[in-house]
Every structure is written in structure tokens, then in C-alpha cells.
Amino acid sequence: MARAYMAVAVALFLVVVCAAVSEAAKPPASHPRLPPNYHMINPGSSGLGKRDQELSCADTKGKKKGCMAKCDKRCPNQCIVMCPSCKTFCMCDFYPGVSCGDPRFTGGDGNNFYFHGKKDHDFCIVSDADLHINAHFIGKRNPTMSRDFTWIQALGIRFADHRLYMGALKTAKWNSDVDRLELAFDGAPIDVPAQLGARWESAAVPGLTVTRTAATNAVRVQLAGVFDIMANVVPITEHDSRIHNYGVTEEDSLAHLDLGFKFYDLSDDVHGVLGQTYRSDYVNKLSVSASMPVMGGAPSYVASDIFSTDCSVARFGHRAGITMVTARAS
After folding, report:
1. For this UniProt entry, which residues form the secretion signal (predicted)?
2. In this predicted structure, what is the pLDDT of residue 95?
């Protein structure tokens, strides 16, 4: 019976991940949803150690009282549990796109690759006629390497005449019970109550919502027919810093965003670090068999600030499409 439950959980996982790629070219009939039998857990309050957490999974047949769920090392601060099997996954497994940790992307072609960028710089990760997304990178210099250790600290999203910001606030001592997520829309702060399921809806843009997927540090941002973004603020733990020599200090836990994207109705001219992988003519020239395939060409994606559309591969500028999308959502 346990194997059957696990098989169902794995099947659901594969269906959701495959759907993220296959549906990228068409708008959904409704907001996509995670399986109804999932639960979010956030192990430990410090983000520095304990990864096991008791979770009671409801069993419709009444044969399971609960189980011990353990988050994978890729996502020690937050994961989802499929009940009643207690199979765990990282949120980025359900939402391909920018993934966990050191910027790792899952392209529209299904292949993983890294883009290291450069600390304290902004890069165009998606640029289409009606949608543009920049990422701000933070990092640490390792004197033994030729590059920075980097992480994505914030996103600047442009659509129509609007600007949406989400970012991780600089944090010294990490405590997952304290919300370190900053959100703003057209320059005004977005205030979402610190409770699971709390929701903000834009009065100016029908279909734009922000929903907390945990009481703190985790949200789902949706624009109907355009994008669905999962964002979690996470630190670099002292344990990981010791192993990888990241250089975490008492003044800075290097809080950053783990992200996942779903896109709908992208054009075939879309570009950017991630965006180009959704084009029908995209040819992956990276070594997909390498343990760390790295996309270069960073100068082509550099933007002058978090909301600028001045990278050399920018496509943003034609707004008719997104106007129709937001009108359709109403």
C-alpha cells in the first residue's frame, strides 16, 4: 500500500512538472493549483539546523495517524509534503524556472543550467513584448575562484505600465518566524497579513494577486493568463557556509529568494537568461551532461537597474497583448 501511495505522489509530481513546460505556450482556463493533498512545512525556527518536523497527514481510509516528514537538503527551510504518503518535494520541483540556491534554472526545454551573473548587478531573465523580469544578484567573492558566489535577492517585474517588486531584506541573524519579504506594486508597499493563505488583490489590475504560502517569507504571485511565481526568502545556513566557504557573517545571512516560474502565452520572440529557453527555435548549446552546465554571455543580459529594460536582448515595449490579458481576467 505504501508503494502505491508513493507511486501516486511521484505521478502527480511528474504531471505538474511536465505541465509547466507543455502549457507555457497557452493561457490556463483557471489558476493552476498544487495537488489538494499537499502541506507546506518550514522546519526549525532558526534555519540553521533541524530539518525533521512532525506532520500529521490525513488519510481518508484512516489507516495512518501521521508521519515524520524531512525536507531535502536542497530546500532545508521549506518543502511540501504529499499526504498520506509523506513524500516530500522542494517548491522549485513543482515550479520550474529559477530554482533553489546558487541560481539554477530549469529552462522551457526542460534542461537545467546555471547562470552566475555578478554580485550587485541586475540581469534580464525574461523579456517579451509585454512582460519583462529583471533579477538583482547579491554575492560573495571567493578569492580562490574566478567568479562570485551569487544568489537572487530581488525581482523587478514590468508589464503594461506597472512595476511589481519582490525582494529579500538584508538580514543578520536569521529567524524564519520573522518576515523578511518586501513587496511593492507601482511604488506602494503590498501589505499581506502574516498568516497562511492571506491574500492581496490589486484594485488596479484584475487578476493580480499575492497569496501567502506560509505565514512568513513565502508567497505565490499570480497574474491571470501571464505568470505564476512562487517566491521564498531563505538564508545561507552556517552549515552550508562552512562546507562551501560562502562567507556568511553575523552581520549578513545572505537572505535571498528561491523562485519558481510558470509562464503563459509567451511570444516566440521572448528572450533573457531564462526566457530564451521557451522559444521554439531555441537550441541548447550547453553541455547538459555536465554536473554544472553554465550559461555565459552575462554582458548581453545586464540591465542598469532592477526595472530597466535596457539589456541588449530586451524585447519589452509592445503593450497590447498584456492589456488584453488583464482585461480578459476581469
Report:
1. 1-24
2. 62
What tens digit of pLDDT does each residue of 180-190 get? 999 999 999 99
- Phi first, then psi: give them for residue 86, nearest 5 degrees: 65, 25
- State the amino acid at position 117 in one-letter form: G
- The pTM (predicted TM-score) of the whole model is 0.73
Query: Which cell is 160 given?
Result: 503594461
- Residues 103 and 256: their CA atoms lie apart, in Å, by 10
The one-letter amino acid code at 191 reads D
What's the grid cell of residue 299? 554582458
Tell me if 221 sits within 8 A of 199, measured CB to CB. Answer: no
311 in Cβ contact with 297 (< 8 Å)? no
How far, in Å, CA of 165 to CA of 151, rounded?
A: 17
* Other CB atoms within 10 Å distance of the CB of residue 294: 12
* pLDDT band with cut points at 50, 70 and 90 for residue 259: confident
Residue ranges per structural domain of the chain: 32-46+63-94, 98-190+230-303
Kindly state the cell numbers that stand for 149. Answer: 558566489
Residue whose cell numbers read 551532461: 289
